[in-house]
């Protein structure tokens, strides 16, 4: 057993850390979050030049894929630095979608441009029910000759406002009794006629949008994977992406822990550092447990993915755990920092918001506990 | 990152597992259950001697002392399997006293004590706690006076599990009452049959434990472990290495509740189809998984030459609070009124392990260092927060 990163991964981690520590500061995070796009194009380009966008993209499509864990290492650092922006939508979810569902032509056209940072992606999945269950897919894609015509509204779509291609989940067959049997996936140009994007107003800083389809006509070549059979592919994308999201959350958890501990060491009340009080010490001790378990769960699930082992149960366990754990930890962080923790000058709230957004992303703890129950054949 | 087990460890582990399956008799399980999985009764002793003959009781020890020079990983796997099987699995000799002797005692002492421990022939009772020295172990008062050719011991120990079945007492005593608290403690090995020792049972809600009284007990000089007045140092060292909190018994308990949920029809459907029950069962599985990752992190650290300290405390807190307490609590909730039934009640479901382990859960966050002490360790040793 080896709970540690390999030497190469440790070097990568160091590289990631260095750039993010320099470029993703308290000020720049706030600037990016306040901007309409939600990210810095300059930093985006630097990240692309370093090959970050291509960490999941195989060499054949100009990427630098070596292992899924490498990506987890990067996401951990992004979570630690609280980096906003469409990286996750593009280089993780979007890229996974293309790799799992895309045909050769789609992969060849889009992936090399993702690797260079010039093409952004989004996945439009949820609708008015806000759920990742097959019944939640009501949006219709009707066949018209070789074309498909899409009508309906997607909600809570991450980073749709900046995406060049939006992958869209739609119902192509309503006659099937099992709701997961009639679902398909399409690659939609963001500037397609009839498609409109309206950003949601969120308190978390997440850039989510409503994406409305009004008679959007797509050529048959926009279909990704086999008609009516997208559901199992979507499941795999979801379960893989939640492990990736957990890495981001674990990194954030580590940072919040460090913020709390360094505060507890210097902040004095009653003539001594508050970190000398057991009440505060025990909060910090609880935070280490949360942070370490999250990291172990994440890397364990990631290791299973790299090894080609079945990982559905481990991924569901991971997201269920990390979703609640990060939330608990961040609240303890607020408690240790006390009053200043809820001022906007402090960084703590950035993590609180990010934790909430991540908790809700691709299924919260309740959703994933149900996934665990299913994977146990309960 | 590599979460796989080495082929070498796995091969031995499979052997151990088969052995346990083959040698576990209903009589053994009943006896072990009746004495909380410590080893002392005739069935347990018979089982352990046969088990230990393979070196499996002390896998990491050098071969010359009866071990097999194996990895810590294997040791942790074996312990976990033993607790899962419900066979005797809580050893004082193999896991606490032996390793301390191995690291700190004279060669003569090692040769005398280690082989019989490794063979499963002798067992110890830990003698640390006193009425006024619980979490604050440094306040222990039991006195040992140097009488030239022997130590003369007087005082009281309390909560000494194993004392009613053990052959020897592993005794922390004050040998220098004038030195600072941590510099006046020594460790002695005492024959439980020595005149002047009386063991009085303390009945608790789950485990049998004992008060032990010493009235002018003579202990041979050579039974001092290591050097005089260095006992606390040895004891702290042991805390880093030997605190191991397996939880196989709670995995077993969990499996029994899953089975209960599948087989119990309520309002026309199995309990396992109820969304609330599914949430609980999944949550319990997640906690077990997290405990597993924390547990095996410890032998990983040891095998790679690092010394776990606060990591052990994390595992202990997690195992005792989220597994022992929360898991058994959820299990009781799922079982409803059946959860309270004693195993001898005719209506008791087959999952009656639950009430037993529920009561254990109350104990787990207290014994072996309370959760509060563990959190102090994490905060102070792990995070470098100042002691008040």
Q: How would you describe what is shown here?
A:
The complex is a heterodimer of chains A (378) and B (388). Chain A has 378 residues and is α+β, with helices and mostly antiparallel strands. Chain A has helices at 7-23, 26-34, 41-49, 68-81, 87-101, 104-115, 231-266, 278-307, 312-337, 348-360, 365-375; strands spanning 121-124, 140-144, 147-158, 165-171, 183-189, 195-199, 208-218, 223-224, 268-269, 272-273. A four-stranded mixed beta sheet of chain A has the order 1-4-5-8, with helices on one face. In chain A, strands 2-3-7-6 form a four-stranded antiparallel beta sheet, with no helix packed on it. Chain A is globular, with a radius of gyration of 21 Å. The two termini of chain A are 30 Å apart. Chain B contains twelve helices and nine strands. The two termini of chain B are 38 Å apart. The model of chain B has no long low-confidence stretch (mean pLDDT 94). Chains A and B meet through helix 7, strand 10, helix 8, helix 9 and helix 11 of A and helix 8, helix 9, helix 10 and helix 12 of B.
């Amino acid at each position: 057993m080896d709970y540690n990163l390999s030497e190469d991964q440790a070097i990568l981690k160091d590289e990631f850390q260095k750039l993010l520590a320099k470029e993703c500061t308290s000020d720049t995070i706030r600037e990016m979050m306040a901007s309409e796009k939600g990210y810095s194009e300059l930093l985006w380009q630097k990240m692309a030049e370093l090959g970050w966008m291509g960490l999941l993209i195989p060499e054949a499509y100009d990427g630098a894929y070596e292992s899924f864990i490498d990506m987890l290492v990067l996401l951990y650092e992004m979570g630690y630095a609280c980096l906003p922006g469409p990286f996750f939508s593009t280089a993780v979810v979007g890229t996974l979608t293309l790799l799992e569902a895309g045909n050769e032509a789609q992969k060849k056209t889009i992936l090399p441009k993702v690797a260079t940072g010039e093409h952004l992606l989004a996945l439009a999945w949820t609708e008015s029910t806000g759920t990742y269950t097959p019944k939640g897919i009501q949006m219709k894609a009707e066949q018209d000759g070789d074309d498909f015509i899409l009508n309906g509204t997607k909600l809570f779509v991450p980073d749709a406002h900046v995406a060049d291609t939006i992958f869209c989940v739609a119902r192509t067959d309503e006659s099937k009794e099992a709701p997961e049997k009639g679902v398909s996936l399409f690659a939609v140009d963001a500037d397609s006629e009839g498609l409109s994007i309206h950003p949601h107003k969120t308190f978390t800083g997440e850039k989510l949008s409503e994406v409305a389809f009004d008679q959007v006509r797509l050529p048959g070549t926009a279909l990704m994977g086999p008609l009516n059979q997208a559901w199992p592919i979507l499941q795999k994308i979801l379960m893989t992406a939640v492990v990736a999201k957990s890495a981001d959350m674990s990194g954030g958890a580590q940072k919040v822990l460090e913020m709390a501990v360094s505060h507890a060491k210097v902040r004095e009340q009653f003539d001594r550092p508050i970190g000398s009080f057991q009440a505060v010490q025990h909060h910090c001790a609880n935070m280490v447990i949360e942070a370490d378990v999250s990291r172990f769960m994440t890397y364990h699930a990631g290791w299973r993915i790299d090894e080609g082992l079945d990982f559905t149960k481990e991924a569901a366990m991971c997201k269920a755990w990390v979703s609640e754990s990060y939330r608990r930890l961040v609240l303890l962080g607020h408690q240790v920092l006390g009053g200043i923790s809820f001022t906007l000058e402090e960084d703590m709230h950035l993590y609180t918001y990010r934790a909430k957004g991540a908790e809700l992303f691709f299924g919260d703890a309740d959703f994933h506990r149900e996934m665990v129950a299913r994977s146990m054949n309960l | 990152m590599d979460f796989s087990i080495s082929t070498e460890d796995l091969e031995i582990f499979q052997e151990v597992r088969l052995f346990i399956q083959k040698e576990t008799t209903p009589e053994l399980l009943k006896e072990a259950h009746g004495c909380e999985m410590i080893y002392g009764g005739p069935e347990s002793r018979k089982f352990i001697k046969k088990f230990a003959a393979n070196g499996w009781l002390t896998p990491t020890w050098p071969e010359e002392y009866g071990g097999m020079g194996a990895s810590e990983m294997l040791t942790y796997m074996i312990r976990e399997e033993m607790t899962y099987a419900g066979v005797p699995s809580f050893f004082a000799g193999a896991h606490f006293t032996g390793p301390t002797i191995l690291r700190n005692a004279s060669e003569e002492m090692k040769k005398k004590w280690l082989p019989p421990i490794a063979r499963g022939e002798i067992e110890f009772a830990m003698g640390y706690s006193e009425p006024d020295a619980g979490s604050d172990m440094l306040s222990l008062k039991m006195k040992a006076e140097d009488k030239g050719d022997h130590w003369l011991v007087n005082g009281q120990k309390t909560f000494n599990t194993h004392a009613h079945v053990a052959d020897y007492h592993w005794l922390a005593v004050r040998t220098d009452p004038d030195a600072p608290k941590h510099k006046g403690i020594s460790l002695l090995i005492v024959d439980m049959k020595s005149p002047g020792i009386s063991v009085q049972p303390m009945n608790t809600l789950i485990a049998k434990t004992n008060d032990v009284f010493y009235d002018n007990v003579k202990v041979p000089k050579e039974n001092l472990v290591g050097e005089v007045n260095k006992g606390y140092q040895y004891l702290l060292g042991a805390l880093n290495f030997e605190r191991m909190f397996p939880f196989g018994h709670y995995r077993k308990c969990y499996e029994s509740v899953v089975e209960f949920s599948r087989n119990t029809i309520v309002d026309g459907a199995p309990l396992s189809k109820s969304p609330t029950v599914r949430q609980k069962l999944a949550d319990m599985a997640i906690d077990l998984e997290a405990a597993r990752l924390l547990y095996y992190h410890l032998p990983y650290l040891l095998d790679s030459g690092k010394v776990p300290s606060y990591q052990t405390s994390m595992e202990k807190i997690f195992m005792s609070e989220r597994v022992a307490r929360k898991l058994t609590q959820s299990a009781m909730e799922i079982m409803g009124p059946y959860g309270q039934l004693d195993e001898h009640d005719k209506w008791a479901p087959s999952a009656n392990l639950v009430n037993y382990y529920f009561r254990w859960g109350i104990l787990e966050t207290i014994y072996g260092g309370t959760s509060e002490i563990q959190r102090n360790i994490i905060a102070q040793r792990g995070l470098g927060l100042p002691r008040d």
